[in-house]
Amino acid sequence: MFRFIVRRLLQLVPTLLGLSVLLFIWLRRLPGGPETAILGERGTPALRAQVRRSLGLDEPLLIQYGRFVKRTLQLDLGTSISTKREVTTEFLLRFPGTVELTITAMIIAIGVGIPLGYLAARRRGTWLDHASVGGSLIGICVPVFFLAYVLKAIFAENLGWFPSSGRQDPTIGATHITNFFVLDGLMTREWDAAADAIWHLVLPGIALASIPLAIIVRITRASVLEVLGEDFVRTAESKGLTERTVRGRHVLRNAMLPIVTVIGLLTGGLLSGAVLTETVFAFSGIGAFLYEAISNRDYPVLMGFILIIALFYVLVNLIVDVSYSLIDPRVRVR
Amino acid sequence: MPLLDVRDLSVTFARRGQRTVRAVDGVSFGVHAGEVVGLVGESGCGKSVTSLAIMGLLPKQRGVTIDGVADFDGTDLLKTDARAMRDIRGRDVAMIFQDPLSSLNPVVPIGVQVTEVLTRHRGMRGEAATKEATALLDRVGIPDPARRLKEYPHQLSGGMRQRALIAMAVACKPRLLIADEPTTALDVTIQAQILELLKELVRDSGTALIMITHDLGVVAGMCDTVNVLYAGRVIENARRKPLFYEPRHPYTTGLLRSVPRLDAGRGTPLNPIRGSVRDVLPWPDGCAFAPRCDRRVDACVGEPPALVVGYDGHGYRCVNPTPQGAQP
Ligand SMILES: Nc1ncnc2c1ncn2[C@@H]1O[C@H](COP(=O)(O)OP(=O)(O)O)[C@@H](O)[C@H]1O
Ligand SMILES: [Mg+2]
């Protein structure tokens, strides 16, 4: 198992290298450049050239790329062109919010989706089945930002059950160590700060969870239905096992295989999908920052962000593969 | 009083948009303690549905109707509620299925699949359960049982898997064992070993066995009494010898004739039964075998043939039976 993980991590190197070359070329080909953002439309060609020179953008691409690789290997993602701060510092400040939001959404999607999908399969053809299949269709169709607005309007602004924006009430005066606000609250034992952070996560978490939830309900239902028809479930029943044993050990365990794969794919997509939800709830994650970086052609920020997303994808995939082999002995890795 | 007394068992499947299927139609038979009873017939004749109905394992959906009685030592298994059936299944009545690979859970070690029965019905856990499971695997002839317990189904051969399934079925010394074509998916040499094992187990423990098969060789080697099924009905039932030497129903006669014989000499044509079960019946009642029958007379198509019970309980449903003394 350990060797498998190391091997997979090593496979990451060529993947990331290839990805970075593509990105590098692609970003540089985009019309406009950071000098336009800095100088606006009024910049004279001479001024533009000067800014480009000061950013090192006048040199041949190959040399620029070489410098980028060397820096990145030292875990230095460079300096943001617009904020003039280290990209790593910016990320450490802003990524935790997005990660918290993603995790919340995934917990909701998995925690609700798997039981609901299981029940729909078990009670096939009943109102519960029809409701969850229909509901999941709506969940897939409704745009996330629209759902976010509706949730905010009803539960935050109208009923006032949840806060309508931000990650935490600043008047609490919480201490921040890692910028994962919930984690910080737990570490410093400031329970009210942690609770408040969780409270702020609920609505954006639900909005972001809608699509993965719908997909997980559907895949769980389909997968459980398939397993319920398997011979070994009949064998388990023929032994007189309790419903709990049949369900947990024989049905769900086998049904988990496709579900795990889908969860992995969804989690990777969520991180980038969080951006929209963050905007609606003025949730200070990576979203707004990234939006600015794109309009400003802030190359170091964009490169860094995409590399981290890629790394995240690969790690999630690795976790999927490892759990796959933990569940199914037939694909067990050595 | 038989241990299991099945009377007038009928199962119909009604699916929306599909023709209603009467898979089992008034089946009656008995099984005494220590007896091996065969249910024989070609595929689709209702053998599996009969056994699943007795086990309470048919899907509980709208459209599935079960009628009749399956009296097991005073309890009607068909009327017993789902909870109580869970206590009976695996403890008093156990079952072995046709395909050992698909009948085992691929992601759970063999050991867990054996001990879970012991935990459920005999309250055994941990060490004790493992010890008993090892003994069970040893008893069904699996070498190196301690190691096999930790392995997964895909690491065992077909014969080993069926042995493991048998171990699970006999773990609680059930009084009745139902084996649904337990050797159909296995190699011929392995088939013989598995049959031998089953014979040994029922002989040693006095378990009654319902042996479901389409193979007359299996019947000849194991069964005390035989029920021949055709299109969901028992069309002939007898003790083994009379059935083989003096079959009365033309279908049974045909079955026996269609078995290739070593003593027939080369070049002797085989005698298959014409057509197949799927032939649609032009008459709603009457004998279902009539379209394929060489001895058909007008009376066959009128009403369902009544059960004729002859000497020593030999029963058949035919208006124009094969004459006695005709060598099959
Ligand atoms: N769940 C079901 N729904 C509808 N029809 C079924 C179902 N199970 C079995 N049948 C039908 O019942 C008949 C008997 O099947 P079965 O008992 O499996 O035959 P076999 O004697 O080969 O074991 C077949 O015609 C089959 O199509
Ligand atoms: Mg069958």
UniProtKB/TrEMBL annotation, chain A:
The keyword Endoplasmic reticulum does not apply. This is Peptide ABC transporter permease. One of its GO terms (cellular component) is plasma membrane. CDD domains: TM_PBP2. The keyword Acetylation does not apply. It comes from Spirilliplanes yamanashiensis. One of its GO terms (biological process) is transmembrane transport. InterPro entries: BPD_transp_1_N (IPR045621), MetI-like (IPR000515), MetI-like_sf (IPR035906). Belongs to the binding-protein-dependent transport system permease family. Residues 95-320 form the ABC transmembrane type-1 domain. It is found in: Cell membrane. It is a multi-pass membrane protein. The chain crosses the membrane at residues 9-27, 101-121, 133-155, 197-217, 257-290, 302-327. Coiled coil: none annotated. Its main location: membrane. Keywords: Cell membrane, Membrane, Transmembrane, Transmembrane helix, Transport.
UniProtKB/TrEMBL annotation, chain B:
One of its GO terms (molecular function) is ATP binding. It is found in: Cell membrane. It comes from the Bacteria. Keywords: ATP-binding, Cell membrane, Membrane, Nucleotide-binding, Transport. Residues 6-256 form the ABC transporter domain. GO terms for biological process: peptide transport. It is a peripheral membrane protein. CDD domains: ABC_NikE_OppD_transporters. Its main location: membrane. Gene3D superfamilies: P-loop containing nucleotide triphosphate hydrolases (3.40.50.300). GO terms for cellular component: plasma membrane. PROSITE patterns: ABC_TRANSPORTER_1 (PS00211), ABC_TRANSPORTER_2 (PS50893). SUPFAM superfamilies: P-loop containing nucleoside triphosphate hydrolases (SSF52540). Belongs to the ABC transporter superfamily. This is Dipeptide/oligopeptide/nickel ABC transporter ATP-binding protein.
